[in-house]
Design a protein that fits this description.
9 helices, TIM Barrel, Lyase, Ornithine Decarboxylase, Chain A, domain 1, 9-stranded mixed β-sheet, 327 residues, 16 strands, homodimer, alpha/beta
C-alpha cells in the first residue's frame, strides 16, 4: 500500500531512520550493555527487531508490557523497572522475571507471589520511586532472608537525561551514579541498571542502560543533539484552510502533549484540539494535502494508537500492532 | 466486585454524579435541544444513557465515533461536526448522517460519497474549521446544486466556552452567535448547531447545543462553577512513599495532559511520568493505599483507556467499553 492510501491520523515509522537508530545504539551498547525499554514503543514487533540486534533483555514499566513480551517469546530476561504491590500476574509468566523493589511492602509482594529475582531500586535524585541509597543494603538483606535472589541495583537519573547541556547532563549523571554505586556496595549482585537515551554514552557506571526513546525519538530528545533522529510522526490530512492558517486531523487524542505542542514541517503550530491541529504553514496548502506532525513526546503518543505503519519510499512495508498498551 | 479489587490504574465513573450531571443537563436542554457530543466519553454505553433521557441525536468528531453509534443502534440523527475529505465510510452507515462542510473540497467529498445531508460549518471566532460567515451562503448554494440537503449551520464558540468569567463568556458567545445567525440567514435550514458545556445556558441562539464534557466533567471545566460535578477519575495505587512525597501508578499514558496536571484529593501534585504521578500528600500514606487522580481534561484521558468502571457505594456496578476510540 502507498502511504497516500492510509486513513488519517496514522502513526508512521520511518523504516530507514528506525533502522539507523537501532544500529547506532547497538554499536554503542552491544548485547547486554543495552536493556531496551519497551515503554517508549509498546510494540512487540519493534522489540523483536531490538532482540535480533543482540540485546537479550528488556525493560518494562507495566505488567501488561511484561506479559506481552513473554507471550511473544521475548522473555529471556525481563525487568519490570517499577514497583508493584500485587505481583501475581508476573508469577504466571513463562519468562525470566525480575522486579524492582524499594520498600518492605513491594519486597513482600514479590516474595508472596513466588517471584525469585529482584533489583533494589535506589533513588538517585529524581523524586519518584526508589529507596534512599543508605537503605538499599538493609532491603537487600531482607529480600535474601525471604528467599529472593538480589541481582543488584537500579536507579534512574531521570532528572539528568533530558538536560540539553551535555556537560551538565554528564555531571548530574555521574553524581547520581556515585549514589547508585554506594548502594550497590551494600547490596551486591552483578547488575547496575540505569540510564536512558539522554545518558546512553555518558553513564559509564551502569552495567546496562535502560534506553527506549532512541528507537523512535521525539522533538524533545532531538534537541539534545544525539546521533538518533526522529523516526515517528503522525500523518495527517489538511481538512480546512483559512487565510493565515490551516487545520489538519491530528489532535490531542493522537499526541502526547506533556512535553508541549507537536511540530509540523515548514509551519508554526498554534494549538491542538481533540481531533485538530491548527497551524500557520509557510507555503500554501490545499484541503486534502498531507502533513507530518512530529510529537514532542513519543511514549504517550504511541499509547494512543492501535498500530504503527512502517514506511519506506512512500510505501507501507509493515503494519505493527501497538500491542503492549493498557495495563 | 468491590472497587478495592480493581487493578490500577483504572478509569472510574462515579455513577451518582454521572446520573446527576445527565439529568441536570436534560432538564436544562430537553430532547433535541441537546445533541450530546460523544467525543468526551467515546462510549456507546454512556451514549445510550443520554439517548434514554430523550436526546435523539448525537454529535461526533470522528468517523469511528459515527460508525460505533450506528452499530449500537443509536443512529437516528448523527452529526459529524468535523470536516472530512473522504466520506465513503459514512455513506455505508445504517443511520441518518449529516456532515459538516466548510469548503468546496469537503462539500464534494460528501456529494461524491453519496451522502444526502450537510451543515455549513462557520468560523465564529475560534481559529479552526469553518468558512468565513460571508462565504456560507455561496457554499450552501453550491451544496444544493450538487443535490445535497442543507440542514442549516454550525459554529463552535470554542474560544468562549472555557472562560471562567461568566459575563465575558456570555459576551463572547453572543458575539459569536451573531456571526452564526448572519450566516444562517444566507444558508437557510432548520438547524443552528453550536455551543458546549461552558455555554450550555448562555447560548440562547443555537437550536441545539453540542455539549459533551458535562457528563463526566474535569478539573478545567469544574473551575467554571457550572451545575455539573466531576464524575470521572483514575484510581491509582501508591507504590512508593518517601519523606515528603508519594508515588502512585497513574501517569502520562492514563491522563490527558494538555490542560495541565491532574489533581489528587488532599495532596499537591508535583509531576507525572509515563506510569507515575509524584505528589505531596497532606496526610501520611502507605504503600498499597488507593488515591483518586482527577484529570484536567476528560476527553484525551478517556481515549487512553479500554474501559470505564461505573462505581456506586464502592462497588463496580457496570463495566463500559470505551469502544469509540481510534479513527
Amino acid at each position: 500500500m502507498r502511504i497516500d492510501a492510509l486513513q488519517t491520523p496514522a502513526l508512521i515509522v520511518d523504516a530507514r531512520r528506525l533502522d539507523e537508530n537501532l544500529r547506532a545504539m547497538s554499536d554503542a551498547l552491544p548485547g547486554p550493555r543495552l536493556r531496551p525499554h519497551v515503554k517508549a514503543h509498546k510494540c512487540t514487533a519493534l522489540a523483536r527487531r531490538q532482540a535480533r540486534l543482540g540485546h537479550p533483555g528488556f525493560t518494562c514499566a507495566t505488567i501488561r508490557e511484561m506479559e506481552g513480551l513473554a507471550a511473544a517469546g521475548l522473555g529471556d530476561d525481563l525487568l519490570l523497572a517499577n514497583e508493584v504491590v500485587d505481583a501475581r500476574r508476573l508469577a504466571a509468566l513463562d519468562a525470566r522475571v525480575t522486579v524492582a523493589i524499594d520498600s518492605p511492602e513491594t519486597l513482600d509482594a514479590a516474595a508472596d507471589a513466588g517471584l525469585s529475582e529482584v533489583l533494589v531500586d535506589v533513588n538517585v535524585g529524581l523524586p519518584r520511586c526508589g529507596c534512599a541509597p543508605e537503605q538499599a543494603g538493609a532491603l537487600a538483606d531482607r529480600a535474601r532472608a525471604r528467599g529472593l535472589r538480589v541481582r543488584g541495583v537500579m536507579g534512574y537519573e531521570g532528572h539528568a537525561v533530558g538536560l540539553p547541556d551535555r556537560s551538565e547532563r554528564e555531571r548530574l549523571t555521574a553524581e547520581s551514579m556515585q549514589q547508585l554505586l554506594a548502594a550497590h556496595a551494600d547490596v551486591g549482585g552483578d547488575v547496575v541498571s540505569a540510564g536512558g537515551t539522554g545518558s546512553y554514552d555518558c553513564n559509564r557506571v551502569a552495567t546496562e542502560i535502560q534506553a527506549g526513546s532512541y528507537a523512535l525519538m521525539d522533538t524533545a530528545y532531538d534537541a539534545l543533539g544525539l546521533p538518533f533522529r526522529p523516526a515517528l510522526y503522525v500523518l495527517a490530512t489538511v481538512i480546512s484552510v483559512a487565510r493565515s492558517y490551516a487545520v489538519a486531523d491530528c489532535g490531542l487524542k493522537a499526541l502526547g502533549m506533556d512535553h508541549g505542542k507537536p511540530s509540523i514541517d515548514e509551519a508554526d503550530v498554534w494549538f491542538c484540539s481533540d481531533e485538530h491541529v491548527t497551524f500557520a504553514p509557510r507555503r500554501k496548502l490545499c484541503v486534502g494535502e498531507r502533513v507530518r506532525v512530529w510529537p514532542a513526546h513519543v511514549d504517550p503518543t504511541v499509547a494512543y494508537h492501535e498500530r504503527m505503519r512502517v514506511v519506506e519510499d512512500e510505501r507501507v512495508v509493515e503494519t505493527w500492532s501497538v500491542d503492549l498498551r493498557g495495563w
